[in-house]
Amino acid sequence: MRAVLCRNWGEPTDLAVEEVPAPQPGPQQVRIAVYAAGVNFADTLLVAGKYQIKPDFPFSPGLEIAGVIDMPGDDAGDLKAGQRVMAVLDYGGFAEMAIADASRVFPIPDVMDFPTAAGFPVAYGTSHVALRRRADLRSGETLLVHGAAGGVGLTAVEIGKHLGARVIGTARGADKLAVAREYGAEEVVDYGEEDVRARVLELTDGKGADVIYDPVGGDVFDISRRCIAFEGRLLVIGFASGRISEIPANHPLVKNYSVVGTYWGSYLAKNPAVIRDSFVELLDWYAAGELKPLISNALPLSQASEALELLRARKSRGKVVLTMDAD
C-alpha cells in the first residue's frame, strides 16, 4: 500500500509517498481502507516534532480518516467489514490502509460522502464540544469567532448560528469574510484592516462578546481579553499564530470572565462518551441538512506536502482533504 512517510522531524516538503506493508489490526481495533483523510494544522506540528505526540520513525501523519472497514480485529464490538465509517487517530491517516481503535470509529450516514466525512471529526467535534459543553453557549448570546473561515473557525460559526447565537466572525480579507457570512456570521471584522476590539465593542453596544472562540492565539488572544463581556467565556482552542498566549491572572479576576481550555483530543482518552454523544447530535444535524461542511481543497495523496502548506500559509477555506484516488 502507499503511505506518506515522515522519516525525520522537518518540513512538509520533506514528506514522501512510499510503498509499505499493510498494517494488521490488534484486539479492539479495525483496519480501514482509507478513501479520504482530513488535513489539520496539528499535522504540520506533528511532522515538525512540535506536537504532544512524537511517534517513532518512520510514521505517517493524519489524524482523521474516512473509508470502509477492511478487517476487524478481535473484540471490535459491533463494527463489521464493509461498514462506511470515519475515525480519529493519533497519526497514520495519510495512507491507503490505517488502523483505528474501535472506540474511535464512527459509522457515517449514507448521505455523507468520504471526503466530507474525512474532514468532519476534528473540526466539527472541537467546535461542538467547545460551544455546547465547555462554554454552554445559549441562544441570544453573542459569539465572537476568530479565524472564522478556517477549518475549525467556520464550524464554530455554523454551530453557533445553529444554537441561536449572534455570531461575529473575524478573518483577514474580503473573500474569507464572505465565507464566514455565508455560514452564519451576522457581522464580520477584517483584523488586517480594522481595530477588532473597537469594532466588537461597537457591535455589542459596549458590552463585549459573551463567548469568544480563539484557535489563533497570540495577538488575537490579547485582543479578545479586551472585548469580552462580564461573565464571558474565552475558549482557548489553539495557537495557529505560532505564539502561545499568556494572561495576567488579575485580568479575568477584575473583569469576571473565564478562560476555558478545550483540547478535544483529551476526551477520547478521558471521557469518550462526550465524543460519542457529540457525534450523535452532529451527524443527526448533518443528515437533516442543517450542516454543510466546506471542503476548499481535495488533493491526491501524492500532494500531502502541498496540502499541509495550504494550511500553514492560511490559503484554505474550511477543510483540506487528501483522497486516495490514483495519481
Can you tag this structure with a few keywords?
327 residues, alpha/beta, six-stranded parallel sheet, globular
**What is the helix fraction of residues, given as a range?**
25-40%
What is the CA-based Rg, rounded? 20 Å
Determine the N-to-C terminus distance.
Answer: 14 Å
Question: Biggest sheet, open or closed, and with what strands and sense?
Answer: 7 strands, mixed
Beta-strand content: 25-35%
Number of strands: 15
Broad structural category = alpha/beta
Number of continuous helical runs: 11
- The helix/strand series, from N terminus to C terminus, equals EEEHEEEEHHEHEHEHEHEHEHHEHE
Please tell me the overall pLDDT: 94
What overall form do the CA principal axes indicate? globular
Low-confidence stretches: none
How does this model look, in words?
This protein has 11 helices and 15 strands. The strands form 3 sheets. Strands 3, 4, 5, 6, 7, 14 and 15 form a 7-stranded mixed beta sheet that branches. The two termini are 14 Å apart. By secondary structure, it is α/β, with parallel strands linked by helices. Strand 12 (228-236), helix 8 and strand 13 (258-261) form a beta-alpha-beta unit.
Brief characterization of the structure:
The chain has 327 residues and is of the alpha/beta class.
Give the topology.
Blueprint: E1 2-5, E2 16-19, E3 29-39, H1 41-48, E4 64-72, E5 84-88, E6 97-101, E7 105-107, H2 114-118, H3 121-134, E8 142-145, H4 151-162, E9 166-171, H5 174-182, E10 187-190, H6 196-203, E11 209-214, H7 219-225, E12 228-236, H8 250-255, E13 258-261, H9 265-270, H10 272-287, E14 295-300, H11 304-312, E15 319-323
Parallel strand pairs: 8-9, 8-11, 9-10, 11-12, 12-13, 14-15
Antiparallel strand pairs: 1-2, 3-4, 3-6, 3-15, 4-5, 5-7
Helix pairs in contact: 3-4, 3-10
